[in-house]
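The material for today's practical consists of a large collection of protein records. Read left to right, the backbone structure tokens trace the chain's path through space. An example says more than a description, so a record of this kind follows:
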Amino acid sequence: MRPLFLLPLLLIFVSPSQNPTTSQEASSVKVLGSRCYRDHQTIENLDTTNVAPARAVITPNKNFERNVRANNPVGARDPNEDTIDGRSAAIEKNVQESRTPHSKPVDGYAYRVKVQNASTKVIEILFWEYQFIDPSDPAIMTRRQFLCPANIKPDKQKEIQAFSLSGPSDVISVRNLANKSAFEEKVVINRVEYADGSIWQRKDWNFGEIRLTYQRVVGTPWGAEMCRGL
């Protein structure tokens, strides 16, 4: 399980409304290698077992009654479950559980990229994408964008991995997928957020295009995954 500090880290990203660095210089992140391949992973659901009924101010919650209730036999009903808040919380929990499918293995694609931090600052966050380009017409391209809490120190290398249900099929016909020469693969760094609060962003990349998915990604608890798709 990834450390619990990752979610707070993501929630304090620099606001998209702030102007990032617009330097013409290239990114300080060097892409040393990359590959995409079919993979089989288990998608985990959020744990809802710890969702407790909201406690209203009722008599059994007062000190005397609570002390008496502590001596009740095992299995005795919690009076909080009979309040309006308690019943509402229980109903909401049942609804959410009914809408959430059980964890199961799924077929998809693993995206791996090895990068190096060529700057003198610690990299905290990486926005990057994996591109599939039709060599016969470079205008035909599929982009798979990802967001990663990187934590890469100066002059250090790190291999980053992401998983997605989507592969190159949007740009290359299924008939040609087995032919590696049917498309070109390229990794592009879109945005780098440093520990000192500074930002580098690719000039022709627009944060607004992924604003909604960005909010969804940072607004849900982080699991064991290293990166998330945008």
Summary: The radius of gyration is 24 Å.
